[in-house]
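#onboarding

Welcome to the new folks! Below is a worked example of what a typical request in this channel looks like: someone posts a single protein sequence, and someone else replies with the predicted structure as tokens. Don't worry about understanding the tokens yet, we'll cover that in week two.

Example request:
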Amino acid sequence: MTNTRSARPTPLARAWRRVIRLGFRLLYNELAFTYDAVAWIVSLGEWRRWQRTALNHLTAPPGATVLELAHGTGDLQLDLRALGYRTVALDLSRSMGRLARRKLRRRGIPARLVRGRTQALPFPAERFPAVISTFPAEFIFDPATLAEIHRVLIPCGRLIVVVNGLLTQGGAARDALELAYRVTGQRGPWPAQADKRLAAAGFRSRLVVETLRRSTALVLIADKPPRKAPMV
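Example response:
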């Protein structure tokens, strides 16, 4: 029999997790103005390449409206607009909303940004052919979030999530960053029950490894099946 007590995190581990979560909360909110710089540093400049791997899996035609969840500072909004897509984006952080709106405005792009929670998307059913999220927190695998994404996707719509990035070059700097990723819990196993949660929400999912020149990115593709034909 498995000793369940030994599997429980120690008080020190629980305290460390609280510290890490506080750090990420600050980065997404009070310290959001540092986000782009931090992302560049911790990826040795690969962050935007990792983000853009999501675009390789879009099946919606240009002109379609794509929903981005956790839009951050708005970089992927620029990429989507450059490819000819219409966009709507949602984030819980007011600070990220201000930063993204300012960035889009500087490029002359009207911002369609909404503040809200992914567990209660303020959009009608079957509204989007694609939903994208890059480096989201654990909320993305919340059953309530997956149910909402499934609801707002059209039949045959697609959820695309850039889950992680891994440096394959960089020497000592790469090794130091990998250690930091592990210490902060970003190199753990695939989120518990993620496959089962996706299936329970009605998705057919798979993982794709995108190979770049100096790194790799892990991309989740989850498709909503077509609507079933009525039985005669």
